[in-house]
Design brief:
854 residues, mainly beta, 14-stranded parallel β-sheet, twelve-stranded mixed β-sheet, 3% helix, 47% strand, Pectin_lyase_fold/virulence, signal, Discoidin domain-containing protein
Length: 854
């Protein structure tokens, strides 16, 4: 039985009155939770987002006294946190709520008090005493309130954290973590005194700067390290005043030590802090020369526990690396295809990587969760005289379920002049050069529902034939013949002209903002990841004159099957990027990406599964994170948000370096029961979503109106967000709900949920059916091109959906080329957008269109 706080009648008092304290029932009963065990939190330093008044401070929630309490200001998203003093293994958290309790809240842990990991999400709380079993580590633990249960704030008699505290004191490693690491400087006196000479371990070589203030020399340690001591060996031209600084990203610096009145020679400085980069920043020279250092040695702290996560290494068991001399190469392709051809919800994940060279007589047939990529810097570095084939023999010639596979960064000369790529959603064709034609239909021209091409050259003609919809971006084609409903092009040389009033085409001359997907390549014998630069108003392919940066593999944690979320987060905290190798990764805590410009890249449709109701991944409101090439599969316990980009209220300007989401797919159900309130929530500004498929399953295991419930596909709260290639299907409420200003979408494909049991189940605000794409009433500026929504209400074919699209009627809202379709008469649409557009009717799947609204 849950213990309840008294004083419920207080809720009826005037809102201007302060909610009076009511003694905790646990105190009255004389039996607090876990009374025989002293919480790690008791008496520790506590802070909060706000205090209601001076009589209810944060400290009162961790003082062991159930007659005192903390209470917050009357607003949501309030928090209370405690510093345990050292990293602890956390097993249980007990919250003794006063009458003003949290209805929805999270328990989070952090190593540094700034980057947080969800340990438990609570929804529909009813106050009293909440005893929560958790699993995680951290020095800081907090209650993060999402929604209050009353009009007052949050109020806790006690906040208790239980577990095992770390006991090993950190020690300073005698080894020099900077020796031989990459170095740079503000200047050098001459070519014989480079920055690297201060970090080579040789006291006979030195760095020296030009004769001016300020000057600096810095070193990249390769990952974020805990720093404890820095040894400096000065030449005669030393610094009188300088700072020792650290940075995670090499741009934003924290001063660990300020030194004045220095006398040169050899000196050691104890420091406390962390960073991947360390620099000596000289402000006042002691001589008329520049600054000159024989050596800089950097020492890092170790607790004697888990060693730092190492970057680089092999690519794991499910990556198949080949070259033109690989024996039985065709057999390798055939073996994987035989296993994966019809394994729609299986556990196999595979990536073929082809080293540069020419491959003759190959037909690489691709089944589910199979990717093929070239390892050259440009597609023409890896040439196949043969085919990469996707067909639908496994499904009787129906290609509408050919999901989850990809081809990238290759040149292809098809054996008979035309390659077959008969795919559906989540099957990108990127950075490809087809020296011939491309057929997007299955053998026999059966049903097909795709697809996406980007940054590719097709020298011949592309024939979509039976493809219902397709989006092509920043490419060139020798021709394009026919199409069914919705064919959209941006920045495509050779694309057909817009004819949406009478045909399927929507064509824009350029793409407003694009940045190609990061990819793995070989530089000699070393693996690197190339991160292409942003392009604006792009037209045609980005290669071979690529702009961008290369990141060595040793700056990535190469994630392999069996890796834990704790290790993944530790790698991120060290400043490493992530390369997920093919596999399925169960997560017992949220992956937290907090460093600007972090790359998270998946191979072979690597799949993340959040367990126990956690969120799968959070990205902080920072510049330039790249998420690419992985699948998030919802678990059987409801997650609030599978992927969150930016925390609520994010408002930083990222226009110069936006976060990109590319070939990141979400699935709820199909492989088993899955639940998630939101699939993807974008709170940050300027995000570019370039090809995603967010899918609440309509077939497979664990499928049912409530069995794989998922209310929202994509929710956009950030401003200036761009979506290019947006596929979102079957959600219980809105598939897309856009609340940010100046949003843009180019191409949208949608089917409404097949399994709506009746019209009442989808009726809201007097409207039958949730729009596939809704722009919130508060939005003033929004624009979209090439949008299609289809209904297939198999559970109740009598449902008449009010409209496919719902937008406010304002001068800044502009919608181009919209259509709705009834698939075989299973339900109908009354209008296309708002109350505009003729209704669908009958069983012949004829689109109802609106070319411009308003």
């Amino acid at each position: 039985m849950r213990l309840r706080s008294l004083g419920v009648a207080l809720a009826a008092t005037a809102a201007l009155l302060t909610l009076p304290a009511v003694p905790s029932p646990a105190a009255a009963a004389g039996a607090g939770a876990a009374a025989a065990e002293t919480p790690l939190s008791q008496g520790r330093t506590a802070t909060s987002s706000s205090d209601e008044n001076a009589g209810t401070p944060a400290a009162d929630a961790v003082d062991g006294d159930t007659g005192t309490r903390w209470s917050s200001a009357a607003g949501d998203t309030q928090w209370l946190q405690v510093d345990l003093g050292a990293t602890a293994t956390i097993t249980k958290v007990v919250l003794d709520w006063e009458t003003a309790y949290g209805k929805d809240y999270k328990i989070q842990a952090s190593q540094d008090g700034s980057s947080w990991t969800d340990l438990k999400s609570v929804t529909g709380g009813d106050g009293g005493i909440d005893t929560l079993d958790v699993s995680g580590q951290g020095r800081y633990v907090r209650m993060y309130g999402v929604h209050r249960a009353t009009q007052w704030g949050y109020s806790l008699w006690e906040f208790q954290v239980f577990g095992t505290s770390g006991t090993t004191a950190p020690s300073c490693d005698a080894a020099d973590a900077a020796k031989g690491r990459p170095a740079s400087a503000s200047s050098t006196e001459n070519a014989g005194t480079p920055a690297s000479a201060a970090f080579d371990g040789d006291t006979g070589t030195r760095w020296s700067s030009q004769a001016s203030d300020p000057q600096w020399v810095q070193v990249d340690l390769g990952s974020v390290q805990n720093l404890c001591k820095v040894d400096l060996t000065w030449e005669a031209a030393y610094a009188k005043e300088f700072q020792i600084q650290a940075s995670d990203d090499g741009r934003n610096w924290t001063t660990l030590k300020s030194v004045t009145g220095a006398s040169g020679g050899t000196a050691s400085y104890d420091v406390s802090g962390s960073g991947r980069h360390l620099r000596i920043y000289g402000t006042v020279r002691a001589t008329g020369y520049g600054y000159s250092l024989w050596e800089v040695a950097v020492h890092t702290a170790s607790s004697g526990g888990t060693p730092p996560v190492q970057g680089g290494g092999d690519l794991g068991p499910n990556v198949i690396v080949v070259d033109p001399s690989t024996p039985d190469l065709q057999q390798k392709f055939d073996q994987v295809f035989a296993q994966q051809e019809s394994s729609q919800f299986g556990s196999g994940r595979y990536q073929f990587l082809l080293k540069p060279g020419t491959y003759n007589g190959i037909n690489a047939q691709l089944g589910f969760y199979t990717s093929i990529s070239g390892l050259g810097l440009n597609p023409d570095d890896t040439r196949i005289n043969g085919d990469i084939t996707v067909d639908a023999g496994w499904f009787n010639g129906n290609a509408t379920q050919n999901f989850w596979r990809s081809a990238e960064n290759l040149a292809l000369k098809p054996a008979n002049g035309t390659d077959r790529w008969a795919v559906a959603q989540a099957a990108p064709f990127r950075r490809m050069h087809v020296q011939g034609g491309l057929n997007l239909a299955p053998n026999g021209y059966g049903w097909a529902s795709g697809g996406y091409i980007a940054d590719s050259k097709i020298d011949g003609t592309v024939g979509p034939y039976s493809q219902q919809q397709w989006y092509t971006r920043d490419s060139s084609v020798g021709g394009w013949t026919n199409g069914v409903w919705n064919m959209t092009f941006t920045g495509v040389q050779g694309a057909p002209a817009t004819n949406f009033d009478s045909g399927p085409y929507t064509t824009l001359d350029t793409t407003p903002v694009s940045r190609e997907k990061p990819f793995l390549y070989l530089d000699g014998s070393s693996y690197k990841v190339f991160v292409p630069a942003e392009r604006t108003n792009a037209r045609g392919v980005s290669w071979p004159a690529d702009a961008g940066t290369s990141i060595p593999l040793d700056q990535f944690y190469v994630v392999k099957p069996g890796a834990t979320a704790a290790t993944i987060n530790a790698a991120l905290a060290q400043g490493l990027n992530l390369l997920f190798t093919p596999g399925i990764y169960h997560l017992d805590r949220t992956i937290d990406v907090t460093r600007p410009d972090t790359v998270v890249l998946g191979l072979g449709l690597a799949t993340l599964v959040p367990d126990n109701g956690i969120d799968a991944m959070h990205v902080a409101d920072v510049d330039g994170v790249r998420l690419a090439g992985f699948l998030i599969d919802a678990g059987p316990v409801n997650s609030d948000t599978l992927l969150q980009i930016g925390q609520p209220g994010s408002a930083a300007d990222h226009s110069a370096d936006p976060t990109t989401v590319q070939d990141v797919f979400v699935r709820i159900g199909g492989a088993g029961p899955g639940l998630a309130t939101n699939s993807v929530v974008v709170n940050s500004d300027d995000v570019v979503i370039d090809h995603t498929w967010l899918w609440r399953a309509d077939h497979g295991d664990g499928v049912g109106w409530d069995t794989n419930r998922a209310d929202y596909g994509l929710r956009v709260n950030g401003d200036d967000v761009l979506a290019t290639g947006l596929f979102v299907e079957h959600f219980n409420k809105y598939d897309v709900l856009w609340s940010g200003e100046r949003g843009r979408t180019i191409f949208f494909q949608n089917e409404k949920a097949y399994d709506a049991p009746n019209a009442a189940a989808v009726t809201h605000d007097g409207i039958v059916g949730y729009a596939a794409y809704k722009v919130a009433d508060t939005v003033n500026v929004h624009e979209a091109w090439g949008l299609g929504s289809y209904c297939n209400y198999t559970a109740d074919p009598t449902i008449v959906q009010a409209h496919g699209f719902q937008v406010p009627v304002k001068p800044g809202i502009r919608m181009h080329d919209l259509l709705v379709i009834s698939l075989g008469g299973k339900g109908q649409y009354a209008h296309v957008v708002n109350d505009t557009g003729v209704p669908t009717s009958g069983t012949d799947t004829v689109p109802s269109k609106v070319t411009r609204f308003p």
